[in-house]
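Bench log, entry 3. Co-assembly request; chain sequences pasted below exactly as received.
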Amino acid sequence: MKYLCLICAETVMETMTEAEAARQYREYAAFTDDLKRNGHFISANRLRPVDTATTVRVRNGQVSVTDGPFAETKEQFGGYYVIEARDLNEAIQVAAKIPGARYGCVEIRPIAEDAQTRALGFDTPHPVMPRASR
Amino acid sequence: MSTNETGLVRETVEAVYRDESRRVFATLIRLLGDFDLAEEALHDAFGAALDQWPREGVPANPRAWLVSAGRFKAIDAMRRRARFAALDDVTEQIETATMDAESLDDQTIEDDPLRLIFTCCHPALGPDAQVALTLREVCGLTTEQIAHAFLIPPSTLAQRIVRAKAKIRDARIPYQVPASAELPERLDAVLRVIYLVFSEGYTTSSGDTLICADLSTEAIRLGRLLVDLLPEPEVIGLLALMLLHDSRRAARTSPSGDLILLEDQNRALWNRAQIAEGTRLVEQALASRRVGPYTLQAAIAAVHAGAPNANTTDWPQIVGLYDVLWRVEPSPVIELNRAVAMAMRDGPEAGLVLIDAILARGDLAEYRLAHAARADLCRRLGRTAEARTSYERALSLTRQAPERRFLERRLDEVEK
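Structure output for the full assembly:
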């Protein structure tokens, strides 16, 4: 089963001191290597700091764009891992080793893999049916 | 078979239902991988027993018979549903339900109730959900009974349980006893749930056991089950603590429902059998040399239980136990209880100094019992004005009627 581990923290690498960022970089590199070796790794990445966030809403056909994240909180999403785990207990064990869990927190969300996922084609990277041409 | 014999078989089925249904249920959840399917299968299995046992006789191993019947009924139901559902989902379910030899191994089955308890008390579920789910699934109480006991609408409670089950399924909370590395922490959560159920019953017990499930009794039953399955020292300590507290049940309120303090209780009303069992369990837990907070609180309760009257209580020993407890769990409430014990050993003045120090830190400023304890010590010292102020403060923080009446009585006494 796949889980999304969202890393929340007050600071991201861009807003840390150089020494601190370097230390976290090494921690994440080691952790990601381990994850790939033990077969839990699916994908991961850092997110740019929250001041680069843009929120989009469409109401009555009108697109509204605002600066910033959808929720104003002290903590922000700094990055994510998508992992493969047998169950929630294993996902908790993996998430507890994410370096960010020691500074901020990690939210674990199960990724749906049911009939709807398949019907919507979320599990296949390319269109199954050829798109109708205009 | 005569009507008489049929009646006997029916009684047997009822007895098996009482003693075994939760264990059968726990095994069915593991085999079927779903709480609701297991619940349905459990009812179908007992339906089949009522139908077949009068004709074919009671099987040698009723539990195994019921598990097997429940599983077959569930697979039948899945096949019937298969016509309407996505085929691979159903195939997966039927595969889960079709078991290998290992899944029916005696030890595996014996551990099923433990799997159920740890799943219901999983830290990924909210505290309220843990309590509700444990009472519903492990104890088999109805939604109405639980809602009534916690004074919340049944619909709220039902929703809480539905949400918790959905999280177990969707986030895939596993049905297992935690590995030894996680066990201490996970066990703490289970003990917390059981003690919370007990305390809720202890403080709100209305004696109206017909409508209201008796939560204290349920908690003690859970404690016994856990001691049976996982005889860790703190599990034994918690059962001892609950038994020793419960032993005073008949003495702690007057017929009119008024609160009677420990020192004023008629000790002839204390339940001697519960005291004997609780004391024996405390000794067993202490002998393990791995002493935790439940065992220490039980040991304190055992010292009280061993005193023929309030004046002969061994206060030095109680203070000593509180010292250890405070080291294990340095909480202000324990510090307060220790201060009260010190007052009993060394006189009210000594306790008052300690309580004032705790209150000065602001830790227990909103805790009614801290003010009530202070008021009592001031009363004993003849410091009437201070006693009155503290009783009034305690009253303003108290919501329970018997406690209010008690404090009002005391306030009247100092006013005179």
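The two ends of chain B are 76 Å apart (CA to CA). Chain B has 20 helices and no strands.
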